[in-house]
Amino acid sequence: MIYFQLFMGFLKVGCFSFGGAYGAIPLIRNVVLSYGWLEDETFTYFVAVSESTPGPIMVNLATYIGSSQAGFLGAVLATLAVVLPSFLLILAAAAFLKTMITNPYVQALLGGIKPCIIGIVLATGIFMTLKNCFYKTPMSIQSAHSFRLNTPHMLITAGLILIAFVYKQKKKKNLSPITLILLSAVAGIFLGL
């Protein structure tokens, strides 16, 4: 049953994600949480590990989650499911590429989807940052919550933002995401996270 769920869940991700790997993270998160495979905080760690390993983050996440839920076969099925729609679409598009890309309707469709993807990626980044920098603490039996600052996570986030800002001001170009990932990993190890 888990094999079928992994395959169908990541097939859905592969079919409906558009705009690159970061645009797929909210869809992967939705699938993972709906099946109860991971908690939200654990998923955030999976995203961080998948981002820091070589390869596309969507494929890395599928492999990592599949492996954590059903071992090697789960990793293979999740990975296959997430890349299958793109593979088939590329095969079909290659046959019609020259006529399709110049079609004004296709251009209008792609132009309309870009802002949506930017919004999805931005919303996911903000959500994950806030989720990691603040945490809920129960206040009373009525299940009200109070938000408290997660100081180590906030320090790392603020430090990375400051480093990226200063680098951009001094060098007049953006700091490599790989450098930011490595810096955050070192800071996490240093702060014992």
Polypeptide structure, described:
- The protein is mainly alpha-helical.
- It folds into two domains: 2-102, no CATH class; 150-190, no CATH class.
- The protein is built from seven helices and two strands; from the N terminus they run H-H-H-H-H-E-E-H-H.
- It has helices at residues 2-16, 21-35, 40-52, 57-101, 104-133, 151-171, 177-190; strands spanning 134-138, 145-149.
- The protein has a two-stranded antiparallel ribbon with strand order 1-2.
- Strand 1 and strand 2 form a beta hairpin.
- Helix 1 packs antiparallel against helix 2 and helix 2 crosses helix 4 (57-101).
- The longest helix is centred in the middle third of the chain and has 45 residues, at 57-101.
- The protein is globular, with a radius of gyration of 19 Å.
- The protein starts with a helix and ends with a helix.
List keywords for this structure.
79% helix, 193 residues, mainly alpha, two-stranded antiparallel ribbon, 2 domains, 7 helices
Topology:
Elements: H1 2-16, H2 21-35, H3 40-52, H4 57-101, H5 104-133, E1 134-138, E2 145-149, H6 151-171, H7 177-190
Antiparallel strand pairs: 1-2
Helix pairs in contact: 1-2, 1-4, 2-4, 2-5, 3-4, 6-7
| Class by SSE composition | mainly alpha
Helicity level: over 70%
Shape: globular
Strand proportion, as a percent range, falls in 5-15%
Count structural domains. 2
Q: Could you tell me how far the N terminus lies from the C terminus, measured between alpha carbons in angstroms?
A: 34 Å
* Number of distinct beta strands: 2
The helix/strand series, from N terminus to C terminus, equals: HHHHHEEHH
Order of strands, widest sheet: 1-2
Poorly predicted residue ranges: none
Oligomer: single chain
The number of helical segments is: 7
Question: Main beta sheet: strand number and arrangement?
Answer: 2 strands, antiparallel
- Please state the CA-atom Rg, rounded to the nearest Å: 19 Å
Report the mean per-residue pLDDT as an integer: 84
